[in-house]
Design goal:
By secondary structure, the protein is an all-alpha fold. It has one domain. It is built from 3 helices and no strands. Helix 1 crosses helix 2.
Amino acid sequence: MKKIKNLIKNQRGQGMLEYVLILAVVVAIGLMFRKQITSAIEGVTGKVSSDIQSFGQ
């Protein structure tokens, strides 16, 4: 517990804690919208694939 208090008081520890919290928020948002992100990426790759195939013909 004392190490945690010292880490919070330390400026370097505070900066690191902020980075960890930002990373945790980004990961949580990514997990919450995983299906939407996956379908959007699949849609884009499908369109690019069909455009490439039609370009070659």
